[in-house]
Amino acid sequence: MTPQTVNAYYDPSTNSLNFPAGILQPPFFDASADDALNYGGIGAVIGHEATHGFDDEGRQFDSAGNNVDWWTPQDRKAFEQRAERLVQQFDAYMPLPSHPTVHVNGKLSLGENIADLGGLDVAYDALQADLRAHPERAVAIDGYSPDQRFFLNYARNWRGQTREQQQLVYLASDPHAPDNLRAIAPPSNMPSFATAFSCKADDAMVRPEKDRVVIW
Hints:
Layout: E1 9-11, E2 16-18, H1 35-51, H2 73-91, H3 110-133, H4 146-156, H5 164-173, H6 179-188, H7 191-196
Antiparallel strand pairs: 1-2
Helix pairs in contact: 1-3, 1-4, 3-6, 4-6
């Protein structure tokens, strides 16, 4: 991956997180922006890549990069049960109205979905720790609270357009869910999102507690 590439990756063989210079720019990182934007941007990316070390593939490597099963049977079973619920959640998404029988492959996209959800959770927790340490920063900017700005910038990371035919190819072969679903699915599992935007129980972005998925 070149320095100009706008991407990041986790390497299980070296247990390392890698961030080319290309991603260290808006909307992911802006040195002049408030902390909430940066935690929702590069913070969520860092959390995403770190969580890959504990997804369905990364968990098969230890801290030294050895391909060994280092989890207890109890931990493995609990993880697989939680992961299966996330598979079912994404299987239910049908992102193309013109193709009502085509749905996201929750199994294919599991690793990335785990990383998206875990990464956003970690980044949100980090923002809260920062605001507790610096309460003077917990102020609204442009009419939005820090929590709202965090989630808004996370969603902004996934702006884009994809032709329908290309999306069909991606749904069949890409281990990532469609960008618009990556923007809305993880926050829909987080009560903090509903609180930030004063959502009602029957709003589209609010899942009943029994349907929320937490991996980490």
